[in-house]
Specification:
With 248 residues, this protein is α/β, with parallel strands linked by helices. The longest helix has 20 residues. It has ten helices and ten strands. It has a single domain, classed as TIM Barrel (Alpha-Beta Barrel), CATH 3.20.20.150. Helix 1 packs parallel to helix 2 and helix 8 packs parallel to helix 9. The chain is globular, with a radius of gyration of 17 Å. Strands 1-2-3-4-5-6-7-10 form an eight-stranded parallel barrel. Helix 1 links the parallel strand 1 and strand 2. The model has no long low-confidence stretch (mean pLDDT 97). The protein starts with a strand and ends with a helix.
């Protein structure tokens, strides 16, 4: 059974949170993915989830928290029964510039993940496009991060893989055993949806979902997280995307 979740970051511009959670429940979602900003008020998130019959089955947490305050990260995850934690980003001014630097970052990430893993959590990295920019030594940062530890999982953002110029199916096949979740994200044809940063509702863009879905299912990857970085109407995005995924 495929689990279809919704990344709450999509709705950050449509407060209040509880209205979003009700909208998602009404649309037919059972699961959501959290992000760092919501963890400033975990009680509101917990009560909203309970009120609307939703589960938070994964969450993005900043590297600063995971590395700097693992006990807090563990406590937050345990308090909401979150099984998976993904570190989603590193600021451009903090990114390594060569292969050795990315390898060292991967080691830092693996070390930071260890206390959370010891507490029973799945921990991984969520990519954007910059992890596909070759280093001067012609390595890809995503490979160097993944090489740090077999225990580090990946939340492969399929939209960003495509934006970076790669075929998502190739990367699904490459890291099938390490992928714990995927971001299901679509890209508008060139020149369209410019008011939404060029993203599209799932199933209404250029992504080859038949091939992608077949690859995911073939490898038993069943945690799909719906995302759009900047929808002008989050209800439209949520409902149309869920309908499209159910047709996969």
């Amino acid at each position: 059974m495929t689990h279809i979740s919704y990344q709450l970051y999509c709705s950050r511009n449509f407060p209040p949170l509880n209205d979003t959670l009700k909208m998602l429940a009404d649309a037919g979602y059972n699961e959501v993915e959290g992000f760092g900003g919501l963890l400033d008020d975990p009680d509101s998130l917990k009560s909203g989830l309970a009120e609307n019959g939703l589960r938070i089955t994964s969450c993005h947490m900043g590297f600063d928290m995971v590395e700097g305050d693992p006990s807090q990260a563990i406590a937050l995850a345990k308090s909401m029964n979150i099984p998976k934690v993904f570190v989603p980003f590193i600021a451009s001014d903090a990114r390594p510039t060569d292969s050795a630097g990315w390898s060292a970052f991967g080691q830092r990430l693996a070390a930071a993940a260890k206390p959370l893993q010891d507490a029973g959590l799945i921990v991984g990295w969520h990519n954007h496009a910059f992890e596909f920019d070759p280093t001067p030594e012609n390595d890809l940062p995503l490979d160097l991060i993944a090489a740090a530890s077999d225990d580090l999982k990946l939340e492969l953002d399929l939209g960003w893989v495509r934006v970076a110029g790669h075929d998502p199916v190739d990367w699904i096949n490459k890291y099938a055993g390490r992928i714990s979740a995927v971001h299901i994200k679509d890209i508008a044809p060139d020149g369209e949806c410019t008011n939404e940063d060029g993203w599209a509702d799932v199933g209404h863009g250029i992504m080859d979902w038949a091939a992608i879905h077949a690859a995911l299912q073939g490898h038993g990857i069943d945690h799909y997280v719906v995302e759009h970085d900047n929808p002008s109407d989050h209800t439209r995005f949520a409902t149309r995307s869920l309908a499209a995924i159910k047709q996969f």
